[in-house]
Automatic annotation (TrEMBL), chain B:
<feature type="signal peptide">
    <location>
        <begin position="1"/>
        <end position="23"/>
    </location>
</feature>
<protein>
    <submittedName>
        <fullName>Extracellular solute-binding protein</fullName>
    </submittedName>
</protein>
<dbReference type="Pfam" id="PF13343">
    <property type="entry name" value="SBP_bac_6"/>
</dbReference>
<keyword id="KW-0732">Signal</keyword>
């Protein structure tokens, strides 16, 4: 991400005093002149951005490390001793990896299969697969998990009522390791799908066709040709899924804990809920998880996609993929695609809609339909926390997205357009939060602002959530901004400089308009993931600063199953509108289709 | 009872001070809770709060109410309450209707969660909480973080004030009742006492909530008084736990009972069941003849003003309201109240025992682990 390509290695000339582009300063004061030069403006802005990024990324980790290792003024490993001597620690570590590995495997199998059949074959219902691929954006993890509880709770889960009617016993159990893997895996599968779609799209089909012409059957061709060709993408996606599994909070907390299955994230959360509190022990668990996540991300970079283009199969040769005919397998594949849509989209949304109209949670029966009501929606809209949380979520989403995009655009310029020594450090700092699980970041940020280093209040305000969101989602903004800048040739900016424009003017009038589609996509994506954020918010929110994900969590914890379902339906409706807008605006501004 | 109040015109200097304070809050991103951070604010906040608590300890009637209201407004108009009370939203609605321009923000969570967060904030020097409300506020008092609350008009009316030994002001009671899903169980099957559920036919059909060690403690005392040995009692509860689904909260426990996840909930609060019943759910804790599984176990819960509350006037006014208008609201929600209201008829004629408060204060470290041990010994954990 940090490597500048041949066209991006040019350092834009800082206009010299008196030259065109210097702002035409003709005053006598030396400092005034200096302050007005584009050179100073550029440096000051870039320096400010670098300081902000360094502060956001490094300070929470410093506090976390300090809070974990320093007790009563001396350095100690006691916190690790306390955390690691807890009963069931080995089991927790095993559970963490089993959950992360299992959910990654499931997501990989489903996502890769769907990507392959929709891109390389004439499989039916590609639109349904695309619609389902939007599910992780539209259904937040906490709602998806709750939907699966409503579907597969032992006695009242709709699926278990069906299985009990047919087999005489409940078959599904959400509160188990397989249940956890299923929910996390199916929720993440669309991300793998999107990842693999790109890989399969850029793969020249001539190789597969050659294999088929040479007598290989389809399965052999897929096994020996197609999959090895996308191996780098597979490796990268697998590791990302494993890291996501390690970081996942909603599924372990809602499904694992009631079943007595703890993983790192849920143990950290409940460590923070226990009395007497041991924040240092929670910190030591957090650092362990951070280390595992960092190793995962390191492996991703080492063996995965690595540098842009390293494993690219796009060549100068044009090709037009010819879909492989599935023939007799078509109905089977079509059924699987339908099943996938049903499982990841229709069932979870359907059960939330159904539950939202019940007077109270109850077993499925035909009588239920006569007692259906909109009271839960009325109750939701009557709850004064709902409009407040909605407003907070929207404000925080917009604030975080704007801050992320501004920081990322300037930092990306520094990385992609200059040869300033140490610019990679900025890139790495901006990337660092990606390896920090949300709950760990929340804990670290609370460590910082409970002992506030800033001259104004942060803890107890929405600012603390904003800081957490900007830190957490900066890596995503960077990805959008860097790739957007790298697509624009530096010659255009050079032309502006030559014509006398200052750096700031060039940045504002030339570069920004050119990278608007990328920045807009980054803004909207950051906005959406901010609105759904739970794992940092749950550690950091204070009364009056609740966001929608916290409201969802609180309703559920409070047993208000029908109200949480109504909130879920409203949120999914709202996010659907937002995602549709993203798509529409993105297309209008030139974002690539799908 | 409390009267609806209207805001008095305030001196200009205070309005200006308010504007400056508002600007400072906006400068810190708008939604501050009014808390103070750092050691510098500690003694000042505490001195102010303690002064207010002392000043109002001898004041009563409308003079007290009006002065507290004015003081709460001048302190920013925002009151922050940490609580586990599921009726808090209704109470706040009543409070804010009564006291125009005051706003109450709550952090509502399980007792462990909010007490822990409260201590974490206090240790870091962040003082943003005015009132803490739950049975576990005894922990707050033990750490010297509870301010003094005296209301000359109300103190004598509070049921069980002496029992809690000044640890908190009792504002409500939780009544543990055994409830059942009437679609799943015929009332004739329901035994008269809790011991009846040790019959193997109840295996897998019961539910208890995970934090119910006070319930166990109260019943242990009652059974011991009836002549049972400790070993016999432990065996009873081990059996009950092994037959039960464990749930994390009482509200959820009642909801899942209504939904049919299990047949009987051993430790529901009566108000959760009564509310569901009023909505038409097939649940009850009383047979048609008014009898129930006995005894009913009552647990006193209450509130304290925080010793360094940023709005100590608001803290006192809110607790005053909990003991006046709030009692009416809780009674309307089928909750046993600290100042007796009409809803106590719900328990007329039924055996009642109280969680022994002195044991609750002093022997938690013995009872809680024993209870958790029962739960860990092979129960089905469920949501």
């Amino acid at each position: 991400m940090s490597e500048a390509g041949p066209t991006t290695a040019t350092l834009p000339p800082a206009p010299k005093r008196g030259e065109p582009g210097s702002g035409g300063v003709s005053g006598n004061g030396r400092w005034l002149r200096l302050a007005r030069t584009g050179f100073q403006t550029r440096n000051l802005i870039v320096l400010a951005v670098v300081i902000v990024i360094a502060y956001l990324a490094a300070v929470p980790l410093f506090y976390l490390i300090h809070g974990t290792f320093v007790e009563n003024g001396s350095v100690t490993l006691d916190a690790f001793g306390r955390a690691y001597s807890a009963v069931g620690l080995g089991e927790m570590v095993w559970n963490s990896f089993l959950f992360a590995g299992g959910s990654a495997l499931l997501a990989m199998v489903i996502g890769t299969f769907l990507a392959y059949v929709t891109i390389r074959t004439d499989a039916p219902f590609p639109t349904l697969v695309f619609a389902a691929s939007m599910v992780p954006l539209i259904i937040p993890g906490v709602l998806y998990t709750i939907a699966w509880i409503l579907l597969s709770s032992e006695n009242i889960g709709v699926l278990n009522q069906v299985s009990s009617a047919i087999l005489g016993r409940p078959v599904f159990d959400a509160f188990s390791m397989p249940g956890m893997i299923w929910v996390e895996g199916t929720h993440n599968a669309p991300l793998v799908y999107l990842f693999m779609v790109a890989a399969f799209r850029s793969m020249d089909p001539a190789m597969e066709e050659s294999a088929l012409l040479s007598g290989a059957n389809r399965l052999t061709m897929i096994r020996r040709i197609a999959l090895p060709l996308v191996r780098p993408a597979l490796a990268a996606a697998t590791l990302i899924m494993v890291v996501r599994g390690l970081e996942g909070f909603e599924v372990p907390a809602l499904l694992g804990v009631p079943g007595g299955i703890f993983v790192f994230t849920s143990r950290i959360f409940y460590e923070l809920q226990n009395f007497p509190i041991d924040t240092a022990a929670a910190g030591s668990l957090s650092l362990s998880l951070l280390a595992f996540a960092a190793v995962g991300v390191f492996l991703t970079n080492r063996f995965g996609s690595g540098r842009d283009g390293q494993f690219s199969t796009i060549t100068g040769k044009g090709f037009r993929p010819h879909p492989i005919e599935l023939r007799r397998a078509k109905p089977v594949v079509g059924t699987l695609v339908l099943l996938y849509f049903l499982v990841t989209a229709a069932l979870p949304v359907g059960v939330l809609l159904y539950t939202s109209m019940l007077p109270f949670a109850q077993q499925f029966s035909l009588d239920v339909f006569s007692s259906m009501t909109f009271d839960n929606y009325a109750e939701l809209f009557d709850d004064r926390a709902f409009p407040r949380a909605t407003m907070n979520s929207l404000l925080l989403g917009a604030g975080a997205a704007t801050a992320v995009v501004v920081l990322a655009a300037i930092a990306a310029w520094l990385i992609a357009r200059t040869k300033v020594p140490g610019r990679q450090i900025v890139d790495q700092l901006a990337f660092l939060p990606l390896v920090v699980p949300g709950i760990v970041l929340g804990l670290a940020v609370s460590f910082v602002y409970l002992r506030n280093p800033l001259p104004f209040q942060v803890y107890g305000t929405m600012l603390i959530l904003l800081i957490a969101y900007v830190t957490r989602f900066l890596p995503y903004g960077m990805r959008y901004a860097v790739s957007a800048i790298q697509q624009i040739s530096g010659e255009l900016e050079e032309s502006a400089y030559v014509s006398g424009a200052s750096w700031w003017k060039t940045f504002r009038r030339v570069l920004v308009p050119l990278i608007v589609p990328g920045l807009l996509a980054g803004w909207l994506y950051t906005f959406i993931i901010s609105v759904r954020e739970l794992s940092s918010s749950i550690v950091l929110y204070t009364p009056g600063n609740e966001v929608l994900s916290i409201l969802t969590w609180n309703y559920y914890e409070d047993g208000q199953l029908t109200t949480v379902a109504a909130l879920g339906v409203v949120m999914i409706g709202g996010l659907t509108v937002l995602v549709t807008l993203v798509y529409a605006i993105g297309t209008r501004f030139g974002l690539r289709d799908r | 009872m409390t009267l609806p109040l209207r805001r008095r015109r305030r001196p200009r200097a205070r309005v200006l001070a308010g504007l400056v304070a508002a600007a400072a809050v906006v400068g810190s991103c708008g939604d501050g809770s009014g808390g103070t951070g750092g050691d510098g604010g500690t003694s000042e906040a505490q001195e102010q709060a303690e002064g207010v608590y002392e000043e109002f300890a001898s004041m009563s009637g409308t003079e007290r109410e009006q002065a507290l209201y004015e003081g709460a407004l001048d302190a920013g108009g925002r009151i922050t309450v940490y609580t586990s009370n599921s009726a808090i939203d209704s109470i706040i609605e009543g409070f804010e209707e009564t006291y125009e321009d005051l706003e109450v923000n709550t952090y509502r969570a399980t007792p462990q969660a909010f007490i822990q967060r409260f201590f974490q904030e206090q240790e870091a020097g962040y003082h943003g909480v005015d009132v803490v409300e739950d049975a576990d506020v005894t922990l707050v008092t033990e750490r010297g973080l509870a301010g003094e609350y005296v209301h000359p008009d109300l103190t004598d009316q509070i049921r069980g004030l002496d029992d809690v030994q000044g640890q908190f002001i009792p504002t409500r009671m939780g009544a543990f009742v055994v409830s059942w899903n009437t679609d799943a169980v015929d009332e004739s099957e329901i035994p008269d006492t809790i011991e009846g559920f040790t019959d193997p036919k109840w295996e897998g059909r019961l539910s208890i909530a995970d934090a119910d060690w006070p319930w166990y403690m109260a019943l242990h005392e009652q059974m011991e008084a009836a002549g049972k040995s400790h070993e016999q009692i432990v065996e009873i509860f081990q059996t009950l736990a092994s037959y039960s689904t464990i749930v994390p909260s009482h509200t959820l426990q009642a909801e899942l009972l209504a939904a049919g996840e299990y047949d009987v909930a051993l430790t529901t609060f009566n108000h959760a069941v009564n509310l569901l019943q009023a909505d038409g759910a097939a649940v009850t804790w009383k047979r048609a003849d008014g009898s129930a599984v006995e005894p009913i176990v009552f647990h006193q819960e209450g509130a304290v003003p925080v010793v360094n509350a940023p709005n100590p006037w608001g803290a006192l006014l809110f607790i005053d309201y909990l003991l006046t208008g709030g009692q009416d609201i809780m009674a309307g929600l089928y909750r046993p109240t600290s100042i007796p209201q009409g809803q106590d008829d719900l328990f007329a004629g039924l055996d009642q025992v109280f969680v022994p408060i002195d044991e609750y204060f002093n022997s938690r470290d013995e009872w809680e682990p024993e209870w958790l041990g029962f739960l860990d010994e092979g129960t089905q954990h469920q949501e």
